[in-house]
Design brief:
Helix content is 20%, strand content 32%. The protein is of the alpha+beta class. It is globular, with a radius of gyration of 21 Å.
Length: 369
């Protein structure tokens, strides 16, 4: 596959760490929330293996924040998500599907409750800020909505806990999963959450003081040799093996949360008010007609740039493959596909046509690992 350069411009923003990762050998970018997001540092397979055993620092500044504060902030945030936040606590992160009036997904962010009247929506790749502003205007909510100056550094991998303890002390490892607190680095406070887009464990530093964030980034690499620290980025292999879903790849605004397996985040029985609630009640009552599933493919490589149809041996449409990669662990291609009823059951077999070749596909549950 031929590679093409990304033409940098004001529409595709660099991050404060871009010059550093380019010196460290980033080999590919993607665009995420109109920003550069590192996609590879050499071999994706080697990076995956390293992530599972060691620790990496990621430039994920493209994971932008939408701040909502003011008198009606909590009311607006709740209107946007089907998850009941009425008992949410300050200092906690919440995975919250954002829903439109048709019950379909707009985004699947992590929402941080900074105060009763101040929230950060840490968004996946879609323009949530305009959605929020439209709802606020239409409902005459008293809120302020803007993108704060926050550029996240993620520290991921099993050795991340030792590295972070060396920098911030033992208290950092007392954080519970999806909890956050403020920690000092050379006189500057940083909001740090125990979170991140891998299943290997780690933290995200929500950097508001850019210079201090750059100093922290450099300091990690000054002291990180004993932990075999390397630069990294969200890893395609690791995230598919772990069943970490990607908005815009595995699902989008044509899909609803039940189809994507988000049932436990859809609180229809509570008294909360959110968009699409009646539509989701109807969908639940009638039952879904398709579901995101894992698939195993009889191949040793794949280059997926669009959805591909999966059919049975009679030519009937089973579903569409949405993400895929070769997994060294399984020694075959694995992927995430939207599979129709009645085919969305483990061990269902299908066929996939790629470049004139017919490949066997086996449906399975998520996550793979």
């Amino acid at each position: 596959m031929k590679n093409y350069s990304i033409a940098k411009s004001r529409r595709i923003r660099s991050t404060p760490y871009t010059s550093r990762i380019e010196k460290q050998g980033v080999t590919a970018y993607t665009v995420y929330n109109h920003m550069l997001l590192p996609a590879a540092f050499g071999s994706v397979e080697d990076s995956c293996n390293h992530l599972k055993k060691n620790v990496q620092v990621w430039d994920v500044a493209a994971e932008r924040q939408v701040e909502i504060n003011g008198k009606d902030a909590a009311k607006l945030v709740q209107l946007m998500t089907c998850r009941d936040l009425s008992k949410s606590k300050i200092g906690r992160c919440y995975y919250c599907p954002i829903i439109d009036d048709n019950g379909n997904l707009v985004n699947d962010p992590v929402i941080l409750k900074l105060a009763e009247d101040r929230w950060w929506i840490s968004i996946a790749d879609s323009d949530v800020i305009f959605f929020a502003k439209g709802l606020a205007s239409g409902n005459n909510f008293e809120v302020q909505i803007f993108e704060p100056n926050v550029d996240i550094i993620a520290i991921q991998g099993p050795k991340s806990f030792d590295l972070m303890e060396k920098v911030f002390g033992k208290k950092i490892n007392e954080l519970k999963f999806f909890g956050f607190d403020y920690f000092d680095f050379k006189g500057v406070k940083h909001l740090i959450a125990r979170s991140g887009w891998s299943k290997q464990g780690g933290f995200e530093v929500y950097v508001e003081n850019t210079q201090s964030g750059l100093d922290l980034y450099d300091y990690f690499f000054e002291i990180g040799e004993e932990f075999n620290l390397k630069p990294g980025c969200p890893n395609l292999i690791e995230r598919i093996e772990s069943g970490l879903l990607s908005y815009g790849n595995d699902f989008d605004n044509n899909d609803n949360p039940f189809e994507c397996g988000f049932d436990k985040y859809v609180n229809l029985e509570s008294e909360i008010i959110f968009l699409g609630k009646e539509k989701l009640k109807k969908i639940k009552q009638e039952g879904i007609k398709r579901r995101l599933m894992g698939v195993q493919i009889d191949a040793n490589k794949i280059n997926l740039t669009k959805s591909l149809n999966i059919k049975d041996d009679k030519g009937n449409f089973i579903g569409d493959l949405r993400s895929a990669c070769y997994s060294p662990h399984f020694k075959k291609v694995i992927g995430i596909a939207m599979i129709n009823e009645p085919y969305c059951k483990p061990s269902t077999m299908g066929l996939l046509e790629i470049e004139g070749n017919s490949l066997a596909v086996k449906v399975c549950d998520l996550p793979f690992i």
